[in-house]
Amino acid sequence: MTSGRPPLGLSRRDALRRGAAATLAAARGLGPALFAGCSLGISPRAKTVTVGLLHSQTGPLAISATSLRDIELHAFEQINAAGGLLGRQLVAQAPDPRSRVDLFPKRARQILENGAVAAFGCWTSASRKAVLPLFEQAKKLLFYSVQYEGNESSPYVVYGGMVPNQQILPALDWLMGEAGGSRKKIFLVGSDYVFPRTANYVAKKYLADKSLKPVGEAYLPLGDRDFSSVMKQIRESGADCVLSTVNGDSNIGLFAALAEAKIDPQAIPVVSTSIAEDELRSLLPEQVKGHYAASCYFQSIDTPANRAWVAGFRREFGRDRVTGDPMEPDWCLVHLWKRAVEKAGSFETEAVRQAFRDGLEFAGPGGTVRLDPKTQHTTKVFRLGRIRGDRQFDVVEASATPIEPDPYPQIAFPGWSVDWTRGGLTRGAEVDIDGNV
Amino acid sequence: MNALQPEWWYWLYDVPPLRLSMLFVGVFVGFYWLGSIIVRPILRQFVKYTAGSNDIVGYVLSCFCVFYGLLLGLIAVTAYQNVAEAGSHVTHEAAALSALYEDVSRYPEPHAQNLRWLLRDYTRYVIKYAWPLQQRGIVPQEGTIRAEAFYDKLLDFQPHSPGEQILHAEALRQFNDFLEARQMRLYSVKSSLPSSMWSVMIMGAILNIAICWLFDMRFLTQLLLGGILAAYLGIMMHLIFDMNQPFRGDVSISAEPFETLYQRMDDE
Q: Cβ contact (<8 Å) for B142 and A94?
């Protein structure tokens, strides 16, 4: 007859309890080893990790966007040569949205379905807004490096470009200041889509705050090159300067029309927000020389870090290639993402976003940038460049310190703010961008 | 056949050539030796009581070897021709690209620079990204985007003089030539011997070995002589397998014509 009691004086209940405790302790101890990689955001056995590149390689925006693809490939190649990210080689998948807003969601879906852990891309705000819901739904990060109008925030977008308080408002200050010739008759010209409309809305609000009003405003469809009627408007308005938010190939038409209308850059300078060294290669130097661009980076910045970066890019992609804004912010974004992934030890979106919270910095070719965890935008140095005859810029103005990003300048969007570390978006009064200011 | 996925057996091409050759020889000799132990005693029953059976088997083997040898020889030549043809597509594409580069270099600025950049970008893509994919048996897709980007920019140019018109027409003709060669290269990524040919070759090898099992001789002699024949069959199969994929294995096409061109583009 058995007593129902195991040897060594242990009851069955004790034995079960001790067994369970030992199993739990073993699971706790061995868990990390057994399940290492399960929270990586990819298959633990994967040797590669796919990253989506969403840039137009054909169509009117290709002139600008192709260089973003190249600088991202350059960054990935360097990361891969150094052993990859978390031991995985980065594989870029770069379908072509052909500069068509309707194709961007299709291409975004394609890269998300193919398992991209994150994506870098979009040029126009219209394209970014078209793919945004897809990234939010898939809970994947989109890194956007182009300067834009602000008035937007998403937990799934990291904005690496300048917002109006870092670009357009300092440019207006310069134009209205002594260095810019104390100009007060400002004409606004832009491509007809969300960025120029919103950016000019912010500009008008800013001018209104200084009791000023633009002397004229004109928009042409993206890709349109016939600016003859706009030139007439500029002449008739008596403008003494032009703030241009014209994008892509349309700049060819704008500057050709300015030259044809014999508008002297010294009398009526044009300050462009969307012109960099890359766009200048399609423009005739005699048509653009003397005009200005507001930016955070120019290839001509004379620092050892920038010289080394430019040389590295040219070594890989050709000695006559140029660097510019937003290539530099794009480079910084890739490296900020890399740092976040390394810090998180994972490609998983929430882990990467968590890594943003402690603040990330990267010493880029144009200076150190910091990712603001509240807005998921980056700090920027404002620079104003005068176009030279060799398709480069002379930096004529630079902010002393990097400017903090403010996607919702209170002057234009009262009551609006964002803090992704606490509560997210705070809504203010609805704003009618297209209405009268 | 999915152009984006390699075949399941492509891992074999990742095995170093000498080891792969030894693997083929090992499989064939091992099969022969194993059959000599297991199958031979059964097969021998059919010719055991036939007078002069070795002569008959020898006569059949000779006849068989003539047909099978011819088949193997022809298949090896076909496989080599496939590789050579793919190689000529690659050379043709690089030559057309080079001629196109020269043509567009004569365009007025900024067209010339923009077009040269796009061709250099295409060449870089072929070397750095397309070639490794081809070597894995995957048809690279993104080169098409780069070729389209170049075509878009080429069509942007409006000739203003008769000289420019002639140059532009020649560049367009050269571009079409390049596109054709490029398409042929892409087709050849997946070109290989049809599976029916492989079936006939493998069946022939098995029958060849089976006939050898019918010989009446000492067991060790059987293992040695049959093993030599099986080893040679293995080497032949390895050679054909190696040439089966133009961009894979020891006998494959390199990206050298593109590398030379890229070097020249970069030096200018």
A: yes
Cα first-last separation, chain B:
42
Give pTM, 2 decimals.
0.84
Q: Which two tokens stand for residue A23?
A: 């199993």
Give dist(CA B121, CA A317) in Å, integer. Answer: 7
Cβ atoms B29, B227 nearer than 8 A: yes
> Within a 10 A sphere around the Cβ of A181, how many other Cβ atoms?
15
Domain membership of residue A135 as a residue range: 48-162+302-380
Domain-embedded: residue A113: yes
Residues of A in contact with B145 (CB under 8 A): 57-58, 94-96
CA distances (Å), origin A397, targets A384, A386, B127: 5, 9, 42
Identify whether A258 is part of a domain: no
Burial label for B23, CB within 10 Å (0-12, 13-18, 19+), is: middle
pLDDT tens, residue by residue, A25-80: 766 655 544 444 447 888 888 889 999 999 999 988 888 899 999 999 999 999 99
Min Cα distance A335 → chain B (Å) is 22
Chain B residue at shortest CA distance from A97: B145
Q: Cβ–Cβ of A317/B113 closer than 8 Å?
A: no
The CATH number assigned to the domain holding A320 equals 3.40.50.2300
- Is residue A249 classed as helix, strand or coil in its secondary structure? coil
**Inter-chain residue contact A58 with B149, CB threshold 8 Å:** yes
Structural contact between residues A86 and A347, judged by C-beta atoms closer than 8 angstroms? yes
Residue A279 lies in a domain: no
Dump pLDDT digits (tens) for B22-69. 999 999 999 999 999 999 888 888 877 777 888 999 999 999 999 999
Q: Which residues of chain A have pLDDT under 70?
A: 1-12, 15, 24, 26-38, 435-437
Residue A28 pLDDT = 60
> Which among B110, B145, B266 has the least Cβ separation from residue A318?
B266
Query: Residue A141 and residue A117: Cα distance in Å, rounded?
Result: 8
Q: How far is A105 from chain B (nearest CA, A)?
A: 18
Task: For residue A58, give the nearest of B113, B120, B148 by CB distance.
Answer: B148
A200/B17: higher pLDDT: A200
Report the chain A residue with the minimal C-alpha distance to residue B128.
Answer: A77
Q: In this complex, which of B110, B128, B145 lies closest to A58 when CB atoms are compared?
A: B145
Non-local (6+) Cβ contacts of B230 within 8 A are: B25, B28, B29, B31, B32, B209
B124 and chain A: CB distance < 8 Å anywhere?
yes
Count of domains observed in chain A: 1
Does A269 map to a domain?
no
> Taking a C-beta distance cutoff of 8 angstroms, is the pair B101, B262 a contact?
no
CB B3 within 8 A of CB B190: yes
Q: What interhelical angle do A194-209 and A125-138 show, nearest 10?
A: 110
ipTM: 0.80
Which residues partner with A387 through β-bridges?
A393
Binning pLDDT at 50, 70 and 90, where does residue B250 land? Answer: confident
Q: Do the chains contact at B152 and A62, CB–CB below 8 Å?
A: yes
Q: Which two tokens stand for residue A292?
A: 């200005």
